[in-house]
Design goal:
about 325 residues, mainly alpha, two-stranded antiparallel sheet, two-stranded antiparallel ribbon
Length: about 325
Amino acid sequence: MGAQVKSATTIDEQLKLMAERGMQVEDKLARQWLSNISYYRLSGYSYPYRVLLPTDNPKKPKRDDRFIEGTSFNDVARLYEFDRKLRTLIYDGIERIEVALRARIGEWVVSYGPLAYTKPELCRSDFDHAGWLDTAMGRVERAKKSNAAVRHYSDNYDGYPFWVLAETLDFSDISILYGGLPVPVQHEISTAFGFKVDATALLARHKKKYYRQDPLARWCEQLSIVRNVCAHHGRLFNRRFTPASTNVFRTISELSSLPRGQSESLYGALLVIAFMLRSVSPGTTWTNKLITLIKSDYMPLSLRHVSEMGFPEDWETHLRMMMSAQE
């Protein structure tokens, strides 16, 4: 049997516990936040302010119950607000990327016919087409109640053209389909997003992987997870995601600040979003908004550092280089 579930605590008990653990608690502010956000949800933002314990494994840090000296409830609230604003900004950027990816995949699929997506031979031999199609049909069936276009095709036609089906799919469905497309098609689509890779400059092992699958497939998988965290209002700023390889995309000058080998922290995702938005939304101010948010809402926070999000020291230079390359 597992441990017994802890009993719920009152706001008064929560305030007392935080104070006993060393947090400076502003009573009125804290009561307002705990009443509307909840102690448990805020704990994900107070955790980085707890004392870091010695450990033999730096990849699995452990923290004490005590807070670092000088920690205030206001610090936690401001970190929460930064994360909320960051989620909103990222969701806006990924939405545009998701719609563009859906459109570019659709353009290729329907060139073989409106129902060509039902044909497994259209995809790679190692792709679970049956599983993907089953999920897609489930999406469209559930959309009948609220989607007039879906009901129209259900009542009058034998099947749904891809342009109707695609409107019911989420980013995960679209990214999985992209990963199942023939590699030359993947390369064509990723190039359209600006990922112009000189394969001749790659090491042999990286070149082999590049011709086996375009790196954008794994990045779309990571972005779909980031998107879901934003959609479900989860803590984002210091979260770790499914790793995406960086070896190929680091050869592109604007993406040279991606970490070597693979990226699993937020910085890589932000850099790729900014890069893709240059082609999806020319003239976008998204990257400038990101820089402003980090400098105004995150960097002034006590005991926090951009490295928690995977940012290199010269992160602003690289993001501004992205902006200047667009002009």
